[in-house]
């Protein structure tokens, strides 16, 4: 049965024009990809799950022991780890909310025709094309109380954005908003341009106000794609490491990914770090699932 | 297509064959170190070795923040990418007990290195466990915490007069932490964009810990008993608390935004005309006497870490020894290199190039002490150094210290006593976990 399906060729496809069968395509593209995924992704994933139940340390040659759920117990009862999770939650909320507002706002502004629209849209997309570590280092300079332009422009004197334990996390979140709002903007623009024009025309004939049109036509039709942007950004923000790591060493801005890095590669507590990585994975999965459920509901409407 | 494939394969085969045969003829040694000036000086030095023996020696470097991670990743994989590594003193425990380093005890005894190198450098860069007479590294780059300061600010008659009027004694190079604090306060004038002092606050590796431990040691405190792992009552003793409080006090007089600073920022504090005094490792002082990198080069002076209230005077040790990696395929060749490296004339040349030799003979020579404005302070310091824990779990211990002291010093949260009590408890738990209390 399978071989029948595999040898079936769509005569119009380019592969068919080159004389490639589905079987060849499977052998050339799909099998290597699957093998790669299994070797570099799935195998380490399962292997690290095993490690998370041991006291294995990658920098020691001592034999390791099976410790059961001890790593998980210790992590979940560690105040430091919980404070890292609280910090991460604050960061995710501030930065993702900021990106959604700024990104969607920009998309609304760009969703009309005006001169040099293409150029402006491209320029607005630049931040997300940069390397996160470079962005972090640049913003560190921008925030500098001695020579940074931010304090100069806003007349903040020598307010120390990154050395102040209360503001460091938000300073990093602002940087993340700057970097990733364009991503939300791009998705929102795609959604906005797909809204049928005749709905707006009908609303105009009915003399519907701007707010009414926005909440009854624009938002409901764009919300599925906005939710996708939200899922992506939440997952990414939860795992943020590079920007925060390059910008500050404040314990009040120590995201869970940074704690994980320190535990794994500075302290070489491999078993426990695997357990922590799994806790993070489960949390991200849970949050994503909630979103996906909601997304399906929105789509049904 | 087939022809192309065949020729490509043949090409790869030839390259491999040729590559291995070349490798077999010309010996090559790779030394791994962090990316900084001394590594460049070392490359210059080892070029002489290549000229003498024909063995090519490459000093491979990586930025400081990755140094430990990269080295240990290679060790853990039992990789032979590096034949020798110039490792941090704290690595000795892990390097020796985990089998990453080759035991150099016989080499040490054979060449009587205990008489050749400065005692502190042997104790902290080479021997593990302390007092065991087992050696794992040859002291290569001596280093410790020292201070640079603005001579012109200190010598200004108006400043001197104002200082005397305010504090009742003459403005001069501080010999105690109390004086250092007064001078920092005196020169701290944010309205003029002038600040008192630059200290280390970066907590991602050992920067802040080195600054804090210097203050703790000079105040008569200690981090713990390195032989018995006793920490309670030592790291949280009243002397240690006084040291940490002093560090916090100094933080008040730092330039704004001084919350993630290490050697780059502390040197910038001097080159940018920001601070009156700046803490740094001696290894980072060469750019400060170079007019091209420091516009105030002529006005910059140097002094050794000051004493505490009881006259005790110590400084945190930096610096590294060179070890042979046990997974290297060129161990014998590496030992030959080390034999060349410990020769008096090599050590002399090393010092001339800008390396901080640990050789007693060179350190004591007049030529060395007068060679730069900071060599005398370096010489004084190398006989009063103390180091951090060197146990295999030092990274965990370091992280715990950082977690507890950073919020107090930079964030102003809690008290010094609380921070160090918590450290004592954390350390005790860690040492218990590794069965250190048998």
Automatic annotation (TrEMBL), chain A:
It holds the Pfam family BPD_transp_1. It is a multi-pass membrane protein. The keyword Transmembrane applies. GO terms for biological process: transmembrane transport. This is Sugar ABC transporter permease. InterPro entries: MalF_N, MetI-like, MetI-like_sf. Belongs to the binding-protein-dependent transport system permease family. GO terms for cellular component: plasma membrane. Residues 85-291 form the ABC transmembrane type-1 domain. Keywords: Cell membrane, Membrane, Transmembrane, Transmembrane helix, Transport. It comes from the Bacteria.
């Amino acid at each position: 049965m399978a071989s029948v399906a595999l040898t079936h060729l769509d005569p119009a496809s380019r592969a068919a024009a080159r004389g490639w069968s589905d079987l060849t395509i499977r052998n050339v593209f799909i099998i290597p990809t699957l093998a790669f995924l299994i070797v570099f992704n799935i195998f380490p994933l399962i292997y690290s799950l095993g490690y998370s139940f041991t006291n294995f340390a990658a920098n020691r040659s001592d034999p390791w022991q099976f410790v059961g759920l001890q790593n998980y117990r210790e992590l979940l009862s560690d105040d430091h780890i919980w404070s890292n999770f609280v910090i991460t939650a604050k960061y995710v909320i501030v930065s993702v909310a900021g990106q959604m507002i700024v990104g969607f706002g920009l998309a609304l502004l760009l969703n009309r025709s005006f001169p040099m629209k293409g150029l402006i849209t491209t320029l607005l997309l630049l931040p997300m094309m940069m390397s996160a570590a470079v962005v972090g280092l640049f913003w560190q300079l921008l925030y500098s109380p001695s020579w940074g332009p931010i304090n100069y422009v806003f007349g903040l004197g020598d307010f120390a954005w990154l050395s102040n334990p209360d503001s460091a996390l938000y300073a990093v979140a602002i940087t993340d908003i700057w970097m990733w709002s364009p991503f939300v903007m791009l998705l929102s623009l795609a959604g906005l341009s797909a809204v049928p024009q005749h709905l707006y025309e009908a609303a105009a004939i009915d003399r519907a106000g701007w707010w009414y049109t926005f909440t009854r036509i624009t938002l409901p039709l764009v919300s599925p794609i906005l939710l996708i942007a939200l899922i992506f950004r939440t997952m990414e923000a939860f795992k943020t490491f590079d920007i925060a790591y390059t910008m500050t060493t404040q314990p009040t801005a120590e995201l869970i990914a940074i704690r994980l890095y320190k535990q794994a590669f500075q302290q070489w507590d491999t078993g426990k770090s695997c357990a922590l990585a799994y806790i993070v994975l489960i949390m991200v999965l849970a949050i994503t699932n909630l979103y996906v459920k909601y997304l399906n509901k929105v789509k049904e409407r | 297509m087939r022809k192309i494939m065949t020729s490509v394969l043949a090409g790869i085969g030839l390259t491999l064959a040729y590559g291995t045969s070349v490798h077999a003829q010309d010996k090559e040694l790779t030394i791994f170190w962090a990316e900084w000036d001394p590594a460049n000086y070392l490359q210059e030095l080892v070029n002489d070795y290549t000229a003498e023996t024909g063995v090519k020696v490459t000093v491979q470097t990586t930025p400081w923040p990755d140094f430990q991670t990269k080295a240990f990743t290679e060790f853990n994989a039992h990789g032979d990418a590096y034949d020798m590594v110039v490792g941090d003193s704290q690595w000795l425990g892990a390097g020796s007990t985990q089998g990453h380093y080759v035991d150099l005890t016989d080499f040490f005894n054979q060449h009587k290195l205990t008489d050749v190198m400065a005692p502190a450098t042997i104790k902290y860069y080479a021997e593990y466990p302390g007092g065991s007479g087992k050696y794992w590294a040859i002291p290569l780059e001596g280093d410790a915490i020292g201070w640079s300061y603005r001579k012109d600010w200190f010598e200004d008659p108006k400043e001197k007069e104002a200082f005397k009027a305010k504090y009742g004694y003459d403005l001069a190079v501080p010999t105690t932490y109390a004086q250092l604090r007064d001078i920092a306060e005196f020169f701290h004038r944010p309205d003029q964009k002038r600040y008192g002092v630059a200290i280390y606050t970066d907590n991602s590796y050992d920067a802040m810990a080195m600054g804090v431990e210097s203050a703790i040691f000079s105040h008569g405190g200690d981090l713990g008993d390195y032989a018995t792992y006793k920490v309670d009552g030592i790291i949280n003793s009243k002397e240690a608390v006084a040291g940490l409080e002093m560090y916090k006090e100094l933080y008040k007089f730092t330039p704004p935004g001084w919350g993630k600073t290490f050697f780059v920022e502390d040197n910038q504090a001097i080159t940018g005309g920001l601070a009156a005094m700046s803490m740094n490792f001696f290894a980072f002082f060469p750019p400060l006497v170079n007019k091209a990198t420091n516009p105030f080069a002529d006005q910059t002076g140097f002094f050794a870490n000051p004493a505490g209230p009881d006259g005790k005077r110590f400084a945190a040790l930096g610096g590294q020894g060179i070890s042979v990696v046990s997974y290297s395929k060129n161990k014998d060749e590496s030992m030959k290199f080390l034999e060349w490296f410990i020769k008096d004339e090599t050590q002399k040349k090393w010092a001339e190039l800008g390396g901080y030799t640990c050789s007693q003979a060179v350190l004591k020579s007049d030529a060395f002490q007068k060679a730069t404005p900071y060599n005398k302070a370096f010489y004084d310091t190398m006989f009063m150094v103390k180091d951090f824990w060197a146990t295999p779990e030092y990274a965990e211990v370091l992280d715990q210290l950082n977690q507890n002291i950073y919020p107090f010093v930079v964030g102003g949260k809690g008290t010094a006593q609380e921070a160090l009590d918590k450290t004592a408890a954390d350390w005790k738990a860690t040492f218990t976990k590794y069965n250190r209390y048998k």
